C-alpha cells in the first residue's frame, strides 16, 4: 500500500506530558504533535526496552522481516492469506525466522501496537491476529471511539482495565516504539507497507506463490 512516510506526519502524535487513557470514560490517549524534533527522537530515546517480535527459530537459514501497519488494508489482507501459508510451510518447519516490525502511519497504528504488546511476547501474535481480523470495525469513528474499540480487543485477549491502563499510560515506551520505528524505517528505506526484507533484499507486497518461490530460492542458496 503506497502510503509514503514523512517525519512528523507519519505519526500524528508523540507522547509528551502524558499518555492518558481513562478507563471506562471513553477518553482517548492524549498526544502532542511533533515535527522539528522528530529527527532527534531516535537519537535521544532509550530503545533498549523494545523487544523484536519474532516467530520461528533464530538460527533458521532464511530470515524474513515484514514492515506493516495495523491500519493498512493490504497488510491485513497479507496477514490473513499469504502469511498464514508462510507460517505453516516455512516458519513452523524451521526454515524461516519471521520478524514483524510495526510501521506507524498514524497514531491509531501506534495505539494498536501498544495494545498488542501489552499481553507480552507470548501472546503478541494472537493479538495481532485479532487486530487485523477486526480492522474494519475498530478503525472507525473518532479517536475516543477507536481507543475504546482497541480496549475491547485487548479485553478479548484476557487483559483487564488495570493492565490496559498501565500499558497505554506508558509514555516512555510509546516514545521508544516511535524511535525504533524511525531507526528501522531509515535503515531499510521503508516507504510503503507491507514491505519485506528477505535475507537483506527488499521486496514489495506479493502473492503467496511469488513469496514461496523466493523463499525456495533462498533456501536452496543456503544449503
UniProtKB/TrEMBL annotation:
Residues 30-220 form the Thioredoxin domain. InterPro entries: Thioredoxin-like_fold (IPR012336), Thioredoxin-like_sf (IPR036249), Thioredoxin_domain (IPR013766). Belongs to the thioredoxin family. DsbA subfamily. May be required for disulfide bond formation in some proteins. PANTHER family: GLUTATHIONE S-TRANSFERASE KAPPA, THIOREDOXIN-LIKE REDUCTASE RV2466C. This is Thioredoxin. It comes from Tranquillimonas alkanivorans.
